[in-house]
Amino acid sequence: MPIAELINATRITYSPNDKKVPNGTILITNAGWTDRGNYTCVITTLSNTFERFTFIRVKDVYAALWPFIGIVVEVLLLGIIIFIFEKRRAKAEFEESDTDQGNDQKNTADLNKDSVRQRK
Questions:
Q1: 88 and 44 in a common domain
Q2: Rounded Cα–Cα distance for residues 57 and 42 (Å)
Q3: What positions belong to coiled-coil segments (predicted)?
Q4: Predicted confidence (pLDDT) at residue 11 exceeds the cutoff of 70
Q5: Is 114 domain-assigned?
Q6: pLDDT tens figures, 53-96
Q7: What pLDDT score does 3 carry?
Q8: Which residue from 13, 60, 92, 104 lies 20 to 30 Å from 41 (Cα-Cα)?
Q9: Distance CA 89, CA 91 (A)
Q10: 106 DSSP assignment
Q11: Would the pTM count as exceeding 0.85?
Q12: Residue 21: helix, strand or coil by DSSP?
């Protein structure tokens, strides 16, 4: 069907294209989901007829917002997971240090008096 029959004529603007062909560019203002679809351009000359097909997609106003929100949510989840595991690891290390009876309290000077040089 011709575009004029499909869309309200007040939303369509015809203008010449880059090569000064009249009605070479069609501008649809306030395009909506109903404008999405396959469009055919038919060019008829005295001897030939040419057809070109294109599929028009209509983007939402907030189309760029959704990937941004996804990235923010992913970063928040990773931050929370890292925070939780670091807290658990620090708690485990703290409990381990309380029960550790390491060699820190031993006097190493008395063990090998002969081989250890003591400073005065």
A1: no
A2: 20
A3: none
A4: yes
A5: no
A6: 989 888 887 888 989 999 999 999 999 999 999 888 887 777 76
A7: 63
A8: 60
A9: 5
A10: S
A11: no
A12: coil
Q: How long, in residues, is the chain?
A: 120
Two tokens, residue 92: 């485990």
Range of the domain at 75: 65-99
How confident is the model over 18-28, as pLDDT tens digits?
Answer: 888 887 888 88
Which structure tokens are listed for 100? 């550790």
Domain total for the chain?
Answer: 2
Residue carrying structure tokens 């649809």: 28
Q: Residue type at 84?
A: I
Q: How far apart are CA 60 and CA 33, in angstroms?
A: 9
Handedness of CA 97, 98, 100, 104 (dihedral sign): positive
Please say which residue of 56, 74, 90 terminates a domain: 56
Question: Within this chain, do residues 82 and 46 fall inside the same structural domain, yes or no?
Answer: no
